[in-house]
Write a structure and sequence with these properties.
With 248 residues, the protein is α/β, with parallel strands linked by helices. 38% of the residues lie in helices and 23% in strands. It has helices spanning 3-13, 46-55, 77-88, 98-102, 108-116, 141-152, 180-185, 198-207, 216-219, 222-235; strands at 26-29, 37-43, 59-64, 92-95, 122-124, 130-140, 157-159, 165-171, 190-193, 210-213, 238-241. The strands form two sheets. A six-stranded mixed β-sheet has the order 5-6-8-9-10-7. It has a five-stranded mixed β-sheet with strand order 1-4-3-2-11, with helices on both faces. Helix 7 links the parallel strand 8 (165-171) and strand 9 (190-193).
């Protein structure tokens, strides 16, 4: 498929123009004009790019790309090595950050909720990035933590009483601990995100709302996979998700 056609399709699908983001969304590094093999992954690390090259990818699509706000401008060190690989082998790099978090079907929050069996009935926070759901049957914090650990392949950090009853859950993948206040105000008994801050402990204790830090990488593996599979189906191209392990 044509690179320009792919970019326009993704811009419409993910409603890119509706977001004020910390990085450019869309084509970040231009490569060959025709794309037949699309590799996807969470972060455009050197390890991921090398794996995509070995597979023969024409393009790499990630959630965390390059050129972040307040990032140093010089093309040196790690940034040079990543860009050199892409440019030397004529590989396209596309990245979608907040638009991929927010998409109602293919996004990170939608896909994580689906894996946990949580059916959203509300949203909160900027761009409605936070998701809310009532559980069909009340369960304990410990039971949810075990379920999350099973589904994501890693045990979350748990703040809160293990036997506390949970009826309403809230979640936002990645580094969304800043939305914990909003989740509490929205009536959640438990909030799940990828990362945690020192102050999160005190807020959990004082509010009585449990907090699960399930891993930034672990919670954001699913949106980009779903998007890649969607593109492969629509445009009849090959798709390969590359998972570079990350303990954070």
């Amino acid at each position: 498929m044509d690179r320009i056609e792919l970019g326009l399709y993704l811009k419409r699908l993910l409603a890119v123009d509706g977001f004020q983001d910390y990085c450019p969304n869309g084509l970040q590094v231009e490569g060959r004009p025709q794309i037949n093999k699309l590799a996807t992954g969470v972060t455009a690390s050197l390890a991921l790019l090398e794996a995509a090259l070995a597979w023969g990818a024409d393009a790499v699509l990630v959630h965390h790309g390059f050129f972040w706000k307040n990032e140093a401008l010089p093309i040196t060190g790690w940034k040079y090595r990543r860009l050199r690989l892409l440019l030397a082998h004529d590989i396209n790099l596309l990245a979608y950050h907040l638009p991929l978090d927010a998409h109602r079907e293919l996004g990170n929050n939608a896909q994580l909720g689906a894996r946990l069996g949580w059916v959203a009935d509300g949203h909160f926070g900027a761009n409605d990035l936070g998701w809310l759901a009532n559980l069909p049957t009340p369960v304990t914090v410990a039971e949810i933590a075990a379920q999350v650990g099973h589904r994501l392949g890693r045990l979350p950090l748990v703040l809160g009483e293990a036997q506390q009853t949970v009826r309403r859950v809230a979640w936002c993948t990645g580094a969304a601990q800043g939305l914990f206040h909003d989740a509490i105000e929205a009536g959640a008994d438990l909030y799940l995100s990828g990362e945690v801050s020192e102050s999160t402990t005190h807020l959990s204790r004082e509010s009585g709302v449990a907090y699960l830090a399930a891993g930034h990488h672990a919670t954001e593996r699913y949106g980009v996979q779903a998007l890649g599979a969607h593109l492969a189906s629509v445009f009849k191209i090959e798709h390969f998700f590359i998972d570079i392990d990350n303990p954070v």
